[in-house]
Amino acid sequence: MGSGQGSRLTDYTLLAVIAVSVSTAPIFVLLSDAPGVAAATWRLIISAALMLTSWTLLERGKRPSRMAVPLSAVSGALLAIHFDAWMTSLYIIPVGVSTSIVDSYPALVILLGSRTLGEHYSARHLVGATLAMVGAMALSLADPGTTYLKGTALAALGMVAMAGYVVLGRSVRRSTGLATYTAIAYSSGALVSAAIALSLGVPLLGYGLRSWECFLALALVPMLGGHTVMNYLLARRSSLASSIAVLAEPVGSSLLAYAVLGQGLGAQQVALMAVVLLGVTMVVA
Predict the structure, then answer these.
(1) Could you tell me which of 1, 54, 6, 38 has the C-alpha nearest to residue 204?
(2) Strand ranges (DSSP E) for 136-216?
(3) How many CB atoms are located within 10 Å of the residue 204 CB?
């Protein structure tokens, strides 16, 4: 097997790891019985501690570029907003709907990536992006209730923040080590999420054992196996190609939500989720 084939096989294997890892996140959030903002904050605090340790051991002597630190910090702030908004939406709308909306961000990645990183996309990518966005907007209107609209609005905010996080991560990772970038981004995200929790009056302490087990699981599985592996790939692949594995999250997390939580979906919601997935598939194929 040539080096190019070996490299592609490695990337595809890592993308599969990302897909499986991120699909568990909604389940751990809901099983924690903690507010979404609290779960997000502890996910980031634990992840930041792990990445700071990695930075100390692996990259402490490497000096990042002048812009790497502020850009990484902004990326982390966007990650905090993504987690806080999306995890809160999981308590309001079904897991499948929430993840379908938040994972439609490739449409925005195309726009941001082409303008800021010089990445080029075909007509198929543009059509797919449009489908994904239309499907996501239709999902947000699938139920006329104000509570449903609040949940979908939070998921949409999480989607916008995720797009910015991925594109900024790609920009930084082209010249900055993984441990350095993630240590800064996750630490910044932890601080921003903690500030949001305090401003909203969300308690960060006083949770039971199962909650803490879920916080740790969020950091070890979807964060380490999902986000950190994705951030590794951002140095090797385009912003879009590095994050394609999230395509599997709405399906994987919906199956887990049904199996673990008994949470089902209506026919209209399943159909619109399929539209979103079709659009994203066209974008990433």
Answers:
(1) 38
(2) none
(3) 16
Residues 6 or more apart whose CB falls under 8 angstroms from that of 271 comprise none
* Measured distance CA(285)–CA(275) in Å, rounded: 15
Burial class (CB in 10 A: 0-12, 13-18, 19+), 201: exposed
Kindly indicate the confidence band of residue 144, based on its pLDDT and cuts at 50, 70 and 90. Answer: low
pTM of the model: 0.88
**pLDDT tens digit string along 190-200?**
999 999 999 99
In this predicted structure, what is the pLDDT of residue 66?
A: 84
Mean pLDDT along residues 249-264? 84
SS3 content of the chain, % helix, strand, coil (to 5): 80, 0, 20
> For 64, how many CA atoms within 13 A lie in the half-sphere containing its CB?
24
**Per-residue pLDDT, 245:** 73
**Rounded to an integer, what distance in angstroms lies between the CA atom of residue 175 and that of residue 156?**
30
> CA-CA distances (angstroms) from residue 232 to 11, 12, 13, 213, 223?
10, 13, 13, 26, 12
Alpha-carbon distance values, 25 to 30, 128, 145, 180, 268 (Å): 9, 26, 26, 24, 24
Banded pLDDT at 272 (limits 50, 70, 90): confident
Mean predicted lDDT score pLDDT of the chain: 87
Distance (Å, whole) CA 40 – CA 85 = 9
Give the up-direction half-sphere exposure of residue 162: CA atoms within 13 A in the CB hemisphere. 26
Closest CA to 279 of 112, 153, 107: 107
